[in-house]
Amino acid sequence: MIPFTKAHACGNDFLIVAVSDIAALDPSTLAIALCDRNTGIGADGVEFLEWQNDDPARGPLAATLRLFNADGSLAEISGNGTRCVAAWMAYEKDAQPGDTLLLHTDAGPRHCTLIELRETGSPTALITTDMDIPDWEPRVVELADGSRLDGVFVSLGNPHFVLLVSNPPQPDASLDFSIDGRTWQEIGEEICFHPDFPDQTNVEFIQPLSRGRNQPDQVALRIFERGVGPTHSSGTGTSAAATAMIAAFGASSPIEIFAPGGMQTVHWPGANEPLMLTGPATLIARGEAWIES
Fold first, then answer.
1. pLDDT (mean) for 188-204
2. DSSP string covering 150-167
3. I need a labelling partner for 80 at 20 to 30 A (CA). Which of 74, 182, 223, 283 fits?
4. Which of 175, 166, 140, 123 is nearest to 284 (CA)?
5. Residue 293 has what pLDDT?
6. Please, are residues 245 and 140 in contact by the beta-carbon 8 Å criterion?
7. Domains of the chain
């Protein structure tokens, strides 16, 4: 039996599993089994956690994470997954607003500050995560049909390719993220597995919604996530979209990014400064999974 907690951040869902509970099981194989939405628990990935400090009296709560995607691939980091684990740690150890939690990921350490913890209904935490200093550069990708797409490559410890899309709204006022008659899902999949990205890449499609003097710039986002496919939200994807908008397309910080799963806010002063991502994470359920060793 494998104990787990399930959580989501803006619809991007994860299972949290203690390393001490999986014995000699292969985490990649286990992630595939647990994440299957028909025969498993269902999730976009599994965060395998090992406590470094679980006693608030001895200093900030701290843990090491390893993230495996639903397809069993190892990912350097998930902004939303990290926030889900931070919310679980805060709930389990009765953290208070203002407390900082330290999570060691394969992309480096991330500091999460608890802004609020609501325990009415499903426990929900509002958390700001220091996503470190993003790297970015303009880049062109040539597709199999010979068309060339200008975008922005962003690294937040994991790779992203961000495309700015400018299409008029559909007759029903919905947003259109297609490019040259192809859906964003099709293009996202081709770019994700493009030879220019030997380790694959996350792909984000962005459209400005509004820019006003008295409110934050707002941007709509669609995400093709490496190892998952189209997904409702992504913390690093949101951060990459904000980086591209601010660094390459003239937006201002703070910026509100709207994905299908909900809105997250990014504060980024610019070059050589850390990017701060704020959003919710909700604990959904806990249980045990029957897994054959």
1. 97
2. EEEEEESSSEEEEEE---
3. 182
4. 123
5. 56
6. no
7. 2-130+280-289 (3.10.310.10), 135-273 (3.10.310.10)
**What is the 3 state secondary structure string of 164-197?**
ECCCCCCCCCCCCCCECCECHHHHHHHHHCCCCC
- 174-202 CB burial, b ≥16 within 10 A, e <16: eeebebeeeebbebbebbbebeebeeebb
> Which amino acid would we find at residue 91?
Y
Angle at 240 between CA 235 and CA 246, to 5 degrees: 125
Contacts of 171 (CB under 8 A, 6+ apart): none
Taking the CA atoms of the chain, what radius of gyration do you get in angstroms?
19
% of residues, the chain, pLDDT over 70: 98
Which residues, other chains included, contact 57 with Cβ-Cβ below 8 Å and sequence gap of 6+?
Answer: none
pLDDT, tens only, 107-154: 999 999 999 999 888 999 999 999 999 999 999 999 999 999 999 999
> Residue 212 pLDDT > 70, yes or no?
no
Mean pLDDT of 241-246: 97
Where would I find the H helices in the chain?
A: 27-35, 79-92, 184-192, 235-248
Both tokens of 41, joined, read 């628990």
Indicate if the pLDDT at residue 247 is higher than 90: yes
Rounded to whole angstroms, how far apart are CA atoms 142 and 191? Answer: 9
Read off the amino acid at residue 122: S
